[in-house]
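Example 9 (inverse folding). The structure is encoded as follows.
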């Protein structure tokens, strides 16, 4: 049984709308919403400071590196980063050591996450054994285990063999689970480290063409159509992917997609310094792709934001660009980047932020206790945001064990001030228990 708590949250505006209210969470569930609520005896008070109240954020794509690379992140440090970023549930990818391709690993990850208790850490199961792309992993066993794995991905690698992918989709359909594809045709990206465009050509970096992503998105949409299965596109990075999703949706194909904050904000002009912090898969593309992805997220063609939080050790990043490991931290900066790219630009309001960072990801992965409306009787998974503040990102101040943030020293708008998981404050500080009056 998950731990539940009680807290009175004062002075918040749900979805940034209407007058300020208080929200009482009792034993993990919202029990009252209104002005002037009083904390029952023994229930702590969390001062919302007039901030915006959102449903707890959900991230369907992170890498917490445990088991195997606990020198770069652990479920505990990643959970802390998640809580600070406003998340109440995250899905951690299977490219651990050993790979999460069986129920003993996925159940271990789930159990550690529950013991840490800062965030629900759902393991993503591998689609193929060892992420080798050849033999299907025991998806059914992982689904039947304590972790109830419902999302499968070989992320970091593409399930590139169409026959294997076809079979995986057929099994996923039968099990009622979802496959998230890392869309990258490996034959088109041999040695590739940067977006295949003028910047990479000038810098002498091997290019990763948009077609490497687009061709797999198109192929998988057709395979999903034939299998009657769902398919999810991980970290969509280019304008063409958006148009392919539009085409697939028009055919009635059950396709969903996510975009990372970095693909909304950053482009390949960052590569001029050869700083390995900017290496990521798929690569940062061009400003025109950023704009197409933002528009697609606003329109709903791209369903949600996922951080692809990917911690790496400094020796794996502070090296020759082509040798740097791909990946960027994202959990603690994502809300701010979405405010900068989507709210300040007028593309989304706070209801829209709740949709793309909480409700849609929860629906896509089938979580019934996250991404819920802020109403009496709903789970007390909540996030408070100060929309008017600015902060300078300091890599060393992040909770993550690694420091590979591309936003270091950047000034970002808005900050998560508190996070509540089933009535327990996981970030921010609550004042001690109230009195019955
Ligand atoms: O940049 C990336 N890093 N993309 C991925 O798909 C995998 C991830 C990692 O595991 O570091």
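The amino acid assigned to each position is listed next.
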């Amino acid at each position: 049984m998950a731990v539940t708590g009680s807290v009175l949250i004062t002075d918040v505006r749900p979805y940034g709308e209407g007058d300020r209210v208080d929200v009482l969470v009792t034993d993990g569930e919202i029990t009252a919403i209104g002005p002037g609520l009083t904390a029952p005896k023994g229930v702590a008070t969390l001062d919302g400071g007039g901030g915006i109240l959102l449903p707890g954020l959900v991230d369907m794509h992170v890498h917490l590196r445990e088991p195997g690379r606990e020198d770069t992140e652990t479920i505990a440090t990643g959970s802390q980063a998640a809580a600070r970023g406003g998340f109440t549930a995250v899905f951690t990818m299977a490219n651990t050591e050993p790979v999460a391709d069986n129920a003993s690993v996925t159940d271990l990850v789930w159990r550690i996450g529950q013991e840490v208790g800062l965030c629900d850490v759902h393991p993503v199961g591998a689609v193929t054994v060892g992420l080798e792309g050849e033999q299907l992993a025991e998806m059914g066993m992982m689904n039947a285990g304590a972790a109830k794995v419902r999302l499968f991905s070989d992320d970091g690698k593409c399930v590139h063999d169409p026959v294997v992918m076809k079979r995986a989709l057929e099994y996923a359909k039968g099990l009622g689970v979802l496959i998230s594809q890392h869309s990258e045709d490996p034959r088109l990206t041999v040695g590739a480290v940067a977006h295949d465009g003028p910047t990479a050509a000038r810098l002498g970096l091997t290019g990763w063409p948009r077609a490497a992503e687009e061709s797999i998105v198109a192929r998988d949409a057709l395979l999903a159509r034939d299998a009657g299965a769902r398919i999810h596109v991980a970290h969509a990075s280019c304008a063409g992917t958006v148009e392919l999703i539009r085409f697939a949706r028009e055919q009635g194909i059950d396709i969903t997609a996510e975009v990372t904050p970095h693909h909304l904000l950053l482009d390949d002009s960052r590569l001029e310094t050869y700083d390995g912090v900017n290496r990521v898969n798929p690569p940062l593309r061009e400003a025109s792709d950023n704009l197409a992805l933002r528009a697609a997220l606003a329109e709903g063609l791209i369903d949600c934001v996922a951080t692809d939080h990917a911690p790496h050790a400094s020796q794996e990043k502070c090296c020759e660009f082509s040798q740097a490991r791909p990946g960027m931290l994202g959990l603690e900066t994502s809300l701010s980047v979405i405010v900068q790219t989507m709210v300040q630009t007028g593309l989304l309001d706070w209801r829209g932020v709740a949709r793309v960072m909480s409700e849609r990801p929860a629906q896509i992965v089938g979580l019934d206790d996250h991404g819920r409306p802020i109403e009496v009787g709903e789970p007390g998974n909540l996030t408070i945001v100060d929309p008017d503040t600015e902060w300078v990102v300091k890599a060393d101040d992040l909770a993550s064990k690694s420091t590979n943030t591309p936003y270091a020293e950047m000034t970002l708008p808005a900050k998560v001030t508190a996070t509540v998981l089933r009535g327990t404050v996981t970030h921010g500080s609550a004042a001690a228990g109230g009195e019955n009056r």
